Amino acid sequence: MRWRMPGFCKTMAGGVLLSLSLALLGWGAEGGKEVSGGATVYLGQDRDIWRPLMHTAVNLNEIRSIKSSFYLRTFDPEGTVFYGDTKNGQDWFILSLKDGIPLMQISRGESLVSVAGGPKLNDGKWHLLEVSNQEPFVILEVDGSNRMVVGMQSKQTMEILSGELRLALGGILMDKEQMFVQLEPHMDGCVRGGSWLNLSIPWELEAEELWPCHQNIQPGSYFPGSGFAVFNTSVFPFEADLGVKVELRGDFSEMDGTIFSIKASGQKLLFALVANNNTKEITLTVGEEKVSMKDTFKAMVIIFQTDSLRVLRDGDESNTTTLPIGPVSHPGYLTTWKEGRLAVGGLLGEEEDDAGSQFLTGCLEKIQVQGRDLDLDLAVKHMSISSYSCPA
């Protein structure tokens, strides 16, 4: 189960210049970079989370077969894959993942249908998906065998055969409030080998260039050294007897920068865990105290209790560091857990503008608080962070 952080779905301003340039260009403005529909595309690229990464349009009179196929690879359980519409968005189709399972949402005339089914696709392997329209059915086929068939009958069916058909990858062109099932659109995943409507039409890219897809990936959250994810500590229940438990797993010897930090407004930094790739040490800072540890371990459990802080490495009780911490030795301690911020991948600054420093470079294979995975997509997060995958 992952922590769902209400109110923390916005994106930091790391892509302000890109967003501004897109706004000035306008949707479908001339001069956009054209790419092949068969290109390898990383869907999690920096942009407004609902805006498609690339799009194209074709006259329906030129289409002989409404069929598209492509390969998808992701560890992300939720996000938008591709979108198509006619009548300038009055009739539309969305293919996404929800809990790792394919989800189709279709609007046609007065009908609105949502169907989910098939195998889980967020296993980090390449899967072949084929979507076709064989009136009155829309068919999704996965890896050549698993099929999901949706039947729709409408008096307006024949009208779809005229006008323009628009396609988009990684986003939608209509109002998200029209969707039957709401979802988080941003997907940490890749698409390649697309054959769209059996046409070789180019797509318009809504960015300067495509971010690369790593050849091999593994589960985890990748921090490239350019940003961090911030959560409100009030969403983590601080229980007097149990405190708050944070669990981290990864190759700490390959990390550099701040793994995570905790701070409340108007208070000094309460906690920081920093990796140094040069000295091969992990430094734990609690208030004015600092403890250095060799980075040879692969797992760490940090338990914040009312009067102490315990750090357990590789599940070995003999490899434990205990520091006194509490309302007496650290006056803002309990306030920090009620009104503070927890940052993963960066050092929190003095201001409240989400500015940070000493950003992490490396892969955290596991990030848990109170036994639940942190969903970085629901944090105030820099878009350069890959929430579900790391290069392997």
Write a structural description.
- The protein is mainly β and 392 residues long.
- The chain has helices at 16-25, 333-339, and strands at residues 2-3, 33-35, 41-42, 54-59, 67-74, 79-86, 91-98, 101-108, 111-116, 127-134, 137-142, 146-151, 164-169, 189-196, 203-205, 217-219, 221-224, 229-232, 244-249, 257-264, 271-276, 281-286, 289-294, 299-304, 308-313, 316-324, 340-344, 347-348, 356-357, 361-364, 366-369, 372-374, 380-381, 389-391.
- Mean pLDDT is 83; it is low at 4-31.
- The strands form seven sheets. Strands 2-15-4-13-6-7-8-9 form an eight-stranded antiparallel sheet, with no helix packed on it.
- The longest helix is centred in the N-terminal third of the chain and has 10 residues, at 16-25.
